Structures are given as C-alpha cells and as structure tokens.
Request: fold
Amino acid sequence: MSQKVKEKLAKLFSLEDKVILLTGAAGGIGSELAKGLAEIGADMALCDRDETGLAAVKAEIAAQGDSAECFSLDLLKMDSIKQCVQAVVEKFGKIDVLINCAGINKRDGCLDADEETYDRIMGVNLKGAFFLSQEVAKQMMAVKTGSIINVASYNAVMMLGGCGVYGASKSGVAAMMRAQAIEWAQYGIRSNALAPGHISTPLTAPLWNDPERSSFLLQRIAMERSGTPQDLLGMVILLASDASAYMSGQLYVVDGGCLAGGKPWHYDTKY
Ligand SMILES: NC(=O)c1ccc[n+]([C@@H]2O[C@H](COP(=O)([O-])OP(=O)(O)OC[C@H]3O[C@@H](n4cnc5c(N)ncnc54)[C@H](O)[C@@H]3O)[C@@H](O)[C@H]2O)c1
Reply:
C-alpha cells in the first residue's frame, strides 16, 4: 500500500485521541472491542459492574503495549451511571464515543418470565443504556460532537424462543437509537446500532453448547460458523470514526449472512 493511501485511510478511520466509554468491557464482546480499539489508539474508558473482569482486560491491554482505565458501573443504579460518567470526564476531559455494549439475557418463555427477570433485563439493556446515553449526551452536546453505538441484537429483528424479554429490550434499543439520532443531530451527535448475529461468548454459551440449537443456528448462517467478537470490530471502528460522519439512525447487522435467509443448501455447479 502506498504511503498516500495509508495516510488517507488512517485519517478517515482514525480513533487516535478519541475517548471511548465502553460498557460491558469485561464481557465476551466488550473485552475484544476494548483490546482492538486500544490497539488502534483510542483512549479507552472500560466500564462494567465486574471489576475483576475489568482489571483482567486492562492487564491484557497493557500486555499488548497499550493502556486503558477502568470504571465501576452498575447500569441498574442511576447514581452509578452518573458517577461513572463524571469519573470518566474527570479522567479524560471528554467523551467522544459511547458504546452501549453491556447486556444480559435469561431465557424464559413468555408464559414463564417473571417480573424480576423482566425488570432486570429491561433495566440493564434498555433503561441503563437510555440514561447512560442521556448523561453522556450532555457532555457531547457541550462540544457539539459525538458518536453513540448501541449494541442491539439479531433478536431486535428476528426472534429465538425464550428471548421475548431480551428481544423486546433490544427492539427498544433500536427505537431509542432512532430517537437519539433525530433529536441529537442538532448537537452534532450521531447514534447508530450494531446488531450482531450469533456470536460465541459466555452470553450465548447455552445456545452453542446445545447440539440441537447450535445445529439450528448453523443451518441458518450462510457462512456456516458462529461469529467471533473480533468480527464486530470493523463495524465499530467505522461507526466510531469520522468515516461514518453522515451515518446516523441506522441498525447495522453483522451476522455472517443469517438474516439474508440462511444457507442456500448445496447446488451443483460446473465451477
Ligand atoms: N453474544 C452474542 O451472540 C450477541 C448477539 C447479539 C447481541 N449481543 C449483545 O452484545 C452485548 C455483549 O454481549 P456479550 O456476548 O459480550 O455478553 P457477556 O455476558 O459476555 O458480557 C456482558 C457484560 O455486561 C456486563 N453487565 C451485566 N450487567 C451489568 C450491569 N448491571 N451494569 C454494568 N455492566 C453489566 C457483564 O458484567 C458483562 O461483562 C450485549 O448487549 C448483548 O445483548 C450479543
């Protein structure tokens, strides 16, 4: 690649000196995003309620020669949300990008999900993301720039059994993202959502460890494999960087060709 091309691409996708507040940073997807984003120069504020997990991710980032800061965050507590944003701003002076990645699920059918489960899933996935976005947007408004990346799901568009509450929370995330995009564009804030397909992480281990369910999924994924957290990094870099300056209000699916309709079986070909 010529120096000119390298410089153009580096400028377009640069995250250097951008402060990224990432929730769920101790989780399967969040930890890989944290490492990948730190590697290309972002100043990472790693937020999660799992402080031990955060410290481990911070150590992995240090081992790759980069740095990051950890912040305790419980999305079920409004005080914690406010304190976390305040602590990140005190440390870094600004927040350029918010990635709402923390999320939980408990697989119960619609007849069996109880109120506690409903409140907890909605509380983390939707209410927590809503009020964290609100706090962060107040910071972004002051400097008239910012990008919010909301992690939605396949279940915001399609549905797996046992994911009624989870899917409702993720459809809510997609609606929230559209509201953020149209209300906050005037302040220079963009908001988008990423809908990962079936990614192999602790959250989805119950699906991938079940032979019947994993076979069902693989038959529907055109690429015939589960996704990895690293498969999501490119889209996140795009949405976080100035390369997506005119992109807002959309849900971007990264799913190995699953929503397209699944595997086309095997047709004979002369090639
Ligand atoms: N894994 C997949 O296939 C998949 C598919 C679609 C969407 N997603 C979404 O991607 C995101 C990350 O999923 P994952 O697979 O990495 O899950 P994960 O369980 O590995 O990680 C989730 C993280 O969220 C944190 N968290 C949970 N409750 C919290 C709270 N109250 N406050 C702060 N942090 C809290 C956990 O400590 C954990 O580190 C989630 O929003 C999930 O819904 C995942």
Observations:
- Residues 23-24, 26-30, 48-50, 53, 73-76, 101-104, 124, 151, 153-154, 196, 198-199, 201-204 surround nicotinamide-adenine-dinucleotide (CB under 6 Å).
- The mean pLDDT is 97.
